[in-house]
Amino acid sequence: MKIIKLFKIVIYILKTYTEDLSFFARNFKLNKNEKNILKIIKKKGYYVWENFYDDLKCKNLRNEVDNLIKKGDFIKQYNNSDFRIYGGNFLSEKIDFFNKNKSLNNLACSFLKMKTKALFTLSARLQHTESNLGSGQGWHRDTYRPYQFKAMLYLCKVTDENGPFQILEGTNKKSSLIYNYIKHNFDFDKSRFSEEEINKMSINKKIKTFIASEGDLILFNSYCIHRGSPTKKGNRYALTNYYFPENFITKNKEILISKFKLPIK
Fold first, then answer.
1. Which helix (H) or strand (E) holds 97?
2. Which DSSP state fits 23?
């Protein structure tokens, strides 16, 4: 059994760690503020950019999200609580403006160490229903590879009652997946986690809850274990840019369009 575990660890390292070949990576120009932000994301797995948008812009974007949901096209919903439109940027100029933010794209390129773009913007409204699971339908990890970049913009004030974003701190580390495999016997490709499993892991880790103001932006590595917590009351509005390497988009565009039901041809 120990030999099998060791073999799986070696395979995982070969598949993922060798992708982080810094001497092959491209360098992207960042200003002083962007460099500081990138440094924090690499260390902690997240960064909160306060007052990224003002209240008026957020109000206009909430209206955009409500209108898109009301139309009902390209919408996915879960438990009549988590309303999502993947690709709101293709349906709204105001949302597309956020999608194409140059500073965020520079950070994504630098974090992933290759040419990157926000393929689409998730435009979402989370509203309270009994027994809701929150945004993302519970604790999860987007990928077993140690790097993935997202930018989430709160379009309203977020408290502990209307579904704040949460991250299990320390799970941005490359070694965290190996540790969980050894300590908890979680397979490398495990992407969903129960409350009981999170409780086990959080004995030595802190759950970071993002209580923040309207217009605050959360930049994070979605390799981290994360979720939008279940709502207790009220609504939560957010836009989230999903960044992918350009070569990955080129190779997998049709698959991505189909998977996320994107409103593009």
1. helix 93-99
2. G
* pTM for this entry: 0.89
- For 139, other C-beta atoms within 10 Å of its C-beta total 23
User: Higher model confidence: residue 140 or residue 175?
Assistant: 140
Half-sphere exposure of residue 85, counting CA atoms within 13 Å on the CB side?
27
The predicted-structure confidence for 80-108, as pLDDT tens digits, reads as follows 888 999 999 999 999 999 999 999 999 99
> 196: alpha, beta or left, given left = phi > 0 and alpha = psi -120 to 50?
alpha
CB 256 within 8 A of CB 87: no
Number of C-beta neighbours around residue 241 at 10 A: 26
DSSP state of 100: T
Q: How far apart are alpha carbons 262 and 265 in whole angstroms?
A: 8
Secondary structure letter of residue 186 according to DSSP: -
Q: List the beta bridge partners of residue 244.
A: 117
Q: What is the pLDDT of residues 26-40, one digit of tens each?
A: 678 899 999 999 999
Residues belonging to the chain? 265
Structure tokens at 187: 């397979």
Architecture of domain 46-260: Sandwich (2.60)
What phi and psi values does residue 180 have, to the nearest 5 degrees? -65, -30
